[in-house]
Amino acid sequence: MTAPTLLHPTSPTPTALDPAVRLEDASRVFGRGDGAVRALDGVSLAFGRGTFTAVMGPSGSGKSTLLQAAAGLDRLTAGRALFGDLDLGEAGERRLARLRRERIGFVFQSFNLLAALTAEQNVGLPARLAGRRLPRATVRAALADVGLGDRVRHRPAQLSGGQQQRVAIARALVGDPDVVFADEPTGALDSRSGREVLALLRATVDRGGRTLVMVTHDPSAAAWADRVVFMADGRLAGELLAPSAEAVAERLTGLGA
Question: pTM of the entire structure?
Answer without folding.
Answer: 0.89
